[in-house]
Structure formats: C-alpha cells, structure tokens
Design brief:
This protein is 6% helix and 53% strand. Strand 4 (40-47) and strand 5 (50-58) form a beta hairpin. The strands form three sheets. The protein has a five-stranded antiparallel β-sheet with strand order 5-4-8-9-10. Strands 1-2-7 form a three-stranded antiparallel β-sheet. It has a two-stranded antiparallel ribbon with strand order 3-6. It is mainly beta. The chain has one helix spanning 59-66, and strands at residues 5-13, 24-31, 35-36, 40-47, 50-58, 75-76, 79-85, 98-107, 113-123, 129-132. This is Ig-like domain-containing protein.
Length: 133
C-alpha cells in the first residue's frame, strides 16, 4: 500500500466539545502523492453498536469547502491540507451524553485505503466534555 497522506493532527472544536451541533473535527495533514478527483470519505459516527451517522463525502469537495484547495482544482496535489468535518452536527443539540466514535476513512479508486482517523468524542452534562484520539 502506498502512502498518500500523513495525518499531522486531529482536533475537535470547540475543546472541550459542548453540543454536537457545534462540534467539528479538523484533520491536518500532508499529501505526499497526487490524488485525482474521485477519492471519497466514508464517515461513520457510532455510540456502542448504534450507528448515528453514515455518510459518503467527496474529499476534493470537502477540501474546497475548507479552503485547502482552490475551487477550480481537479485533483489534490502534494502539500499541506486541512479538512474540516461537521460530522457531529447530524446528532443534533439533544444528543445523549456519552462517548461517540467518529471514524473517517479516505478511500481511493479501487477502494484502497488512503488514510484513516478514529476520534472519540465524549459529551458530558452541560460544560464537561472530553476528547481523545
């Protein structure tokens, strides 16, 4: 397997997370090899065995939305990237307290894994919350 992206950091904002509707996952990394359009992200949010979010996103579209690549670009070129995922917004403001696993997988043209990140976000009562990754 070739390395396409080296993940440098994963942040959850705000820190500590307050409510899911305002929580975002920010992944910063370095693209080592050019990735043409068509790379997609599988994003899953689970709590225990229950799946709350399962979505597929186009990596290039998400990078454009985050301002990491110009809107006219047709491929992800080598260099730094920042990917911002509002993944937890789908849980809504009334999500139950507890730990949620956010699994992000970037998949290539033949379902090759290009990079992956698992982040556990713990929502607690009102202001107490924790993040681990």
């Amino acid at each position: 397997m070739s390395t396409y992206v080296v993940v440098k950091s994963v942040e959850v904002t705000p820190d500590p997370p307050t409510i899911p509707a305002q929580t975002r996952i920010v992944i910063k990394g370095e693209v080592l090899r050019r990735m043409r359009d068509g790379v997609y992200l599988d994003v899953v949010v689970k709590r225990g065995l229950a799946t709350f979010v399962a979505s597929t996103l186009e990596l290039l579209d998400e990078l454009k939305a985050a301002g990491s690549v110009p809107s006219w670009q047709k491929a992800v070129e080598p260099g730094p990237i920042t990917l911002t995922l509002p993944t937890l917004q789908s849980l809504g403001a009334s999500a139950e307290e507890g730990e949620y696993l956010c699994r992000v997988r970037a998949m290539g043209w033949e379902d090759e894994l290009l990079f992956g990140v698992d982040v556990t976000v713990a929502f607690r009562a009102a202001t107490a919350a924790a993040v681990s990754g």
